[in-house]
Amino acid sequence: MDATTDVVVIGAGQAGLAMSRCLTRRGVGHVVLERGRVGERWRRERWDSFTLLSPNWQTRLPERTYAGSDPDGFMTGREVAAMLADYAAHTGAEVREGVTVRAVDRDARGWRVTTDHGELVAPAVVVATGDLDRPAVPALAADLPPGVVQLHTRDYRQPGALPPGGVLVVGAGPSGQQIAGELARAGRTVHLAVGRHKCLPRRYRGHDTYWWMDRMGTLSRTRDSLPDPSATRTPNAVLTGGTRDLDLHRLVAEGVVPHGRLVGVRAGVAAFDDTLPAVVAEAEDNAVRFRAKVDGFVARTGLAAPPEPARLPRPAPWAHDADATLDLAGIGTVIWATGFRRDFSWVHAPVLDAAGEPVHDRGVTAAEGLSFLGLKWLHRRSSSFLDGVGADAEYLADQLAEASRIRWRTRAASRVRWSRSGTLAAAPAASA
Which among 11, 345, 384, 410 could bridge 128 via Cys, Cβ 3.0 to 4.6 Å? Predict the structure, then answer.
């Protein structure tokens, strides 16, 4: 695959395809490399009943908005993958599927992208592999009894695919709570190790929560407007596709047994900390603050929205009674709902901080020609969302198009020189 191009885009999910469309509109030559098929993670790394947390009407990419019959519904993972494949075909994106990138290195001509199918050289590379890269599993997983099956949420599919026995779900973000609820409703004995999370109502005052966040500008808030950069690392809000709320109160009512945060495993016994009451109170407080913010917005704008009775924080006696240990003899499966981490060790450029996170300004790094797209809070809160990645792609495409024009002008100037007689003569072309 030895070749050259203006831009190599790595990843053919929503970020890579949005980037491709924006570059095409600006006349910038490029190629998109994808290790699997278009939308691979949506296709292969979601459980069977998975749905988006955002409504269908909020599925928006450059030159593509949802036009189906169910704008208030929620796409499944397979439907998202099919939508992305259709988008790639419609926009004519030059995607090379089944190509795994091994390394990105500096090159005299710009950047050398090494893959399992050869090399590409380009003045610019956009890393658009997204925010959900490698499963994050804690080191204490090695201490579990050998007979316990361990799965990350990426590999979970449905209750019937699990071996017999109880299930311990570790992590109470949206994935952990959705899976715990599904397992409990399927008749499984489910324990849930609960860490920090945020509650939100699915609907409030006649509208979906995402409608309110969109209308109030919450999703378009930029990272430079935050008083504390650490705010970008807050836990995800717990929601589920549909009309019902999802929280620990509902899960406990469905039979899920809650515990504090998993802190260790020894001699076949799991140990949990005592933070569950405080974590539940903190999560509930987030929902209270959200409703108050909506109420204030309605009062300021005069928006017509039916009022709802005030909701006080609900008592959670079960949080104070939670067991601090669990004998794993009756547990057949542990599901790690512990999120993902990003691994950019294959990007060989001084653009990563001590934690391996890209250092950038709106995706643009200090290494000329190297950019990132699709990361959480890349610029806005919605930067990693289907609805938000397009705005970042437009910005990066502008930067890349201008750099391409500068290179073209430089090359054009270098191809001619004045001879001593004053006539023009062709000169060797400069390296791309």
Answer: 11
